[in-house]
Design brief:
This protein is of the alpha/beta class. It has a single domain, classed as DsrEFH-like (Hypothetical Protein Ychn, Chain: A). It is built from five helices and six strands. It has a four-stranded parallel beta sheet with strand order 3-4-5-6. A two-stranded antiparallel sheet has the order 1-2. Helix 1 runs parallel beside helix 2 and helix 2 packs parallel to helix 4. 25% of the residues are buried.
Length: 118
Amino acid sequence: MKVFLILSILIISCKNYSFENQGENNKQLTPSIGMVIYSNDTETVWNALRLANYFKNQGDTVRIFLLGKGVELDNLVNANNDIKEQTDKFLDNGGIILGCGTCLKSREIDKPQVCRFS
């Protein structure tokens, strides 16, 4: 199941390269990557955050969308130092984490720490 989720994240987060024509020179713009985390499994979330940090370190623009059980990231950050470290690194490097508003409300998470309502 974990391998399937990681592969799903990789497929969803395929790089979208854009090119801007300027005469003879083609200028490559920074790739944008979107990741969906739909799990509260510690190892799966940790690996997804590591992957997001890798892309950020490569200069990509990365956004994470938390869906379903994924919005429980706040609980994982409070309970697991490795996930907290990866989340802090991602946010400090300019990463954006959005959470499904309906999913957050259904879990009575009114003020999430690491994501914004979407």
